[in-house]
Amino acid sequence: MKLGVVGLGYAGLCTAACFARKFEVIGIDVDRGRVSQLNRGEVPIHEEGLPSLLKSGITGRTLSFTTDYDSLLGTDIVFIAVGTPSKSDGAIDLSQVTTASALIGRQIARSKKTRLIVIKSTVTPGTATTVVKPLLEKEAGKSCGDGFGLCSNPEFLREGAAIEDTLRPDRVVIGPFDERSGRAIKSFYRRFYGPRSPKMVETTPENAELIKYASNTFLATKISFVNFIARICETLPGADVGDVAFGMGLDPRIGRQYLEAGPGFGGACFPKDSRALGAFTLQRGLDGSLLRSVLEINDTQPDWIVSSVEKALGSIRGKDVAILGVAFKEESDDVRESRAIVLAKRLISKGAQVRITDPKAMEGARRELGKGAEYYDDPRDCIRGADAAIVMVAWEKFKKLKPGDFVRLMRTPVLFDARRIYDAAEYGLGALKFMAIGRGDLPKVRG
Ligand code: UGA
Question: Whole domain around residue 318: which residue ranges?
Answer without folding.
Answer: 216-436
